Amino acid sequence: MVKPEPIELAVLSQRYQEYHPHLDLPEAGCQILLADPDLAATALNRLPKVQWIQSTWAGVRPLLNHNRRNYQLTGIKDVFGVQIREYVLTYLLYFTRQVPEYLSKQKRQCWQPESPKTLAGQTLGILGAGNIGTDVARAASGLGMRVVGLTRSGQCKDVFEQCYAPAQRLEMTAQCDHLVSLLPQTPDTTNLINAELLRQLPRHGVIINAGRGNVIHQQALIDSLTNKQIRGAVLDVFEQEPLPDCHPFWHTPNLIVTQHTAGVSFPKDIAKLFLNNLRHWREGQPLLHRIDFAKGY
């Protein structure tokens, strides 16, 4: 049996460094880097021999913004589906089952039942109907919802009743009760959810963004909520994180701010994915979940 050639590998992660505070930066001879994208981008110019970076996050924008691209970059796939679908369903049910109203009435000791509503029979639109979007669609379908999706190609898996391309987004949104964005950050997705699109939603509509913050036109969403044009919004991602104390989102009516926690990278999941990809590397097989620098995902 031929012994594999040794490789120089380094880990560059904030969580890892919390347990190893005296860990040195990777050596210049490092070939493989398992790293948080922001830390990797900072160190990249000092690592001339790096050939592959495995991101520990789903978002890799710091590395996409870097001018160096002569290496393979791999992302994270198939580890966030359970978390994201629970997140989406939590807040769809929160608004549909009128939790805010009942909490308010409890504080006022007011017994005044609301007219019951249900998600069954409503239509959910998913912007970004990839693997995670498909997991969300299956869960929503299990509650009796009709699900439509949007992808760059206009093609989705069978769980979606219908699929649309970006040019058809207004047509898609017009038939939706609620909208979920799981889109990546690219020039094409910036401000895709704008005033024109928001006007297509009904007054009971809820928007949930667990993708990237650039997708939503901020002032358009604030105006839509303030004017009660839609029922509510739940945002987990923002153009600037942490969200500044002075940002109007903190005080916008019927807007819930969560803190980039809809889908968290658990070390055990990342380690499993990385080790599987490392086996591919050693065996000369194509790496899984490669990022296309031109597309941005």
UniProtKB/TrEMBL annotation:
Gene3D superfamilies named among the record's database cross-references: NAD(P)-binding Rossmann-like Domain
GO molecular function: NAD binding; oxidoreductase activity
Entry keyword S-adenosyl-L-methionine: no
InterPro entries according to UniProt: D-isomer_DH_NAD-bd (IPR006140), NAD(P)-bd_dom_sf (IPR036291)
Top EC category: oxidoreductase
Tree of life domain: Bacteria
Residues covered by the D-isomer specific 2-hydroxyacid dehydrogenase NAD-binding domain: 90-262
Record keyword Cell division present: no
Keywords annotated in UniProt: NAD, Oxidoreductase, Pyruvate
The protein's Enzyme Commission number: 1.1.1.-
Descriptive protein name: Glyoxylate/hydroxypyruvate reductase
Provenance organism: Saliniradius amylolyticus
Lineage of the organism: Bacteria, Pseudomonadati, Pseudomonadota, Gammaproteobacteria, Alteromonadales
